[in-house]
Amino acid sequence: MPQPPEPDWIETRLVGARPQAIAALLRYFRDLDLAEEAFQEACLRALGSWPKNGPPRDAAGWLIMVGRNAAIDHKRRQARLTALPDEAAISDREDAEAALVERLDAADYRDDILRLLFVCCHPDLPATQQIALALRIVSGLPVRRIAAAFLVGDRAMEQRITRAKARIARADIPFETPGPAERAERFAAVSAMIYLVFNEGYTDANPQGERAALCDEAIRLARLMLRLFPAEPEMMGLLALMLLQHSRRKARFDKTGAAILLEDQDRTLWNRGRIAEALAMIDKAMLHRQPGPYQIQAAIAALHARAERPEDTDWGGIDALYQALERHAPSPVVTLNRSVAIWKLHGPEAALEMIAPLAGPLDGYFYFHGVRGNLLERLGRKSEARDAFGRAIALANTPAEAAHIRKHLDRLEG
Amino acid sequence: MRYTILCYHNEDITSAWTEEEDAEVIENLKAVNRKWARNFGPIVRLMPTSAATTLRKSENIVTDGPFAETKEQLLGFYVVDVENLDVALQIAREMADANPGGAYELRPIALSYPDGEAIEDAPTP
Questions:
Q1: What range(s) does the YCII-related domain occupy (chain B) (predicted)?
Q2: What are the tens digits of pLDDT across the range B92-111?
Q3: Closest residue by Cα to residue A130 from A143, A119, A141, A146
Q4: Chain B residues 65-124 within an 8 A CB cutoff of chain A
Q5: Could you give the ipTM of this predicted complex?
Q6: Region of residue A136 (phi > 0: left; psi between -120 and 50: alpha; otherwise: beta)
Q7: What does the buried/exposed string (b/e) look like for A154-188 if buried means 16 or more CB atoms within 10 Å of the residue's CB?
Q8: B109-113 vs B43-46, strand pairing mode
Q9: Which residues in chain A are closer than 8 Å to B25, comparing Cβ atoms?
Q10: Beta-carbon pairs below 8 A across chains A and B
Q11: What is the pLDDT averaged over residues A292-297?
């Protein structure tokens, strides 16, 4: 059979089939390690078989079947060392396969994949472990690449993932089909985890770096969720939000790696394809008339994306959307973000007044001092601005953030 | 005779392509496109099915996602340029009144080359 002219076509197919295959194997074995081993074994056999026979029509189904059988054979071989082979288990093998094939319908594997992702965002796990686990298990990134993304050594990351898995093994993985309320709960947890993966990549200044690839991975996971659960407006909102933020990737940092503010970015570098897809997702989400935090944040990002020049920005619309966001998900950070719209609409003094009550709750927050310094600078209150920027630089999370604040300080000196 | 060549693939696979791999596939296609340039009409790349909306015509029901039934066959398509999905749905509903039964899938277009000119300056999707 002729091979399709695709780059690394086997590798791509294995990556594409991975979430579905691992998710089904997890349901079958109820053990993450066993599921992963079975998938690995199936991949090895695919590398042997597919180049000769061509790819199977249903790659995921093939991998599930082969992985499952390999694991059962392995178990049986181990059992043979200690006891006689179990005739009953062997004789019903064909039936078991038929049953498995039957169970591989769409409705089932939707919940399989949701469960797999949900397992990775177990509330006992800290955020960094959730991300590492999802990247390792769902996306199948090699430990080496995850370690590079988190700037830790391979062994340290290996240990982190092993610990996370052990923690999950001790916890109860919910294998029964979820009811509507549980499904909604899992959905919310999985959405938050996908956005964590995205943000991990988003903060990296190097567009070619390992971490930037995490943005693509998060977008892929959100698209996958939407293919399985097409009528979830908040997932549409999350996908739109990530596409809009990712569309600015090439414009967000200067050559030295310093962050460039939205209003100073070269908008011709924004990726129009990602913006168009995001706007289409927002259109779809709005038909549901169930606004939520991701949809509102996406709508705000869309108003920025629609403005060809910074001065075309619809700040009134952005202010209204931030007010809606304050109602849906109140937080001092939302109010801080809204203050930028207030500044554009009513001037820096009004904005400064608005953020004054945030000084307590956001005292340890980089952006608060950055925004405050900027407003003070605009008002000509130089020494106060310098103090605020000083606080910001001490709290900067990345070199890009620190470099951006340093520019402000240099300007104040000049 | 004019033909449409409709493109089918597994999105699990295409969405796993990296930007570089995607660009490589487009590059390979361009070679064919250049060779047959005189024979090409409009070229369209659709957005992923996650961006699709479907109108079931007889029931006037709008659902998210692509048209996934296998009982019906693809018989034709329109390209419309509108402000938003609401307007596209309005057009689709009016067409449904004129021609009931079956479904319309509304799928945004990612890239389009109306005259099939060689896709030289294609922005990456």
A1: 1-109
A2: 999 999 999 999 999 999 98
A3: A119
A4: 65, 84-86, 108, 110-111, 123-124
A5: 0.86
A6: alpha
A7: eeebbebbeebbeebeeeebeeeebeeeebeebbe
A8: antiparallel
A9: 6-7
A10: 85
A11: 97
Please give the domain boundaries of chain B with CATH numbers for all domains: 11-113 (3.30.70)
Greatest alpha-carbon span in chain B = 46
Contact B51 A220 (CB under 8 A): no
For A346, other C-beta atoms within 10 Å of its C-beta total 14
For residue A412, the tally of other CB atoms under 10 A from its CB is 15
The answer for B65, left when phi > 0, alpha when psi is -120 to 50, beta otherwise, is left
CB contact under 8 A, B84 and A12: no
Copy the structure tokens of residue B13. 């696979």
pLDDT at A209: 67
- Round to whole Å and give the CA distance between A266 and A308: 10
Confidence band for A105, pLDDT divided at 50, 70 and 90: low
- Tokens representing A202 are 């988003």
Using the structure block, give the residue that is written with the tokens 């190097």.
A206
The percent of residues in chain A predicted with pLDDT above 70, rounded, is 89
CA distance A184 to chain B (A): 18
Residues 6+ away with beta carbon under 8 Å from B63 = A230, A231, B53, B54, B56
Distance (Å, whole) CA B52 – CA A230: 9
B74: pLDDT strictly greater than 80: yes
B99 phi and psi angles, rounded to 5 deg = -145, 80
As a whole number of angstroms, the distance between CA A74 and CA A66 comes to: 12
Distance from CA of B82 to the nearest CA of A (A): 12
Which 278-307 residues of chain A touch chain B by CB within 8 A?
280-281, 283-284, 287
Distance CA A55, CA A47 (A): 10
CB contact under 8 A, B25 and A6: yes
Tallying the residues shown for chain A, one arrives at 414
- For residue A388, the number of C-alpha atoms closer than 13 Å in the C-beta half-sphere is 23
- For residue A239, the chain B residue with the least C-alpha distance is B50
Cα A271 to chain center, whole Å? 19
Nearest by Cα to A221 from A183, A192, A179, A247: A192
Burial grade of A49 (CB within 10 A; 0-12, 13-18, 19 or more): middle
Smallest CA-to-CA distance from A371 within A412, A339, A325 is with: A339
3-state secondary structure of A333: helix
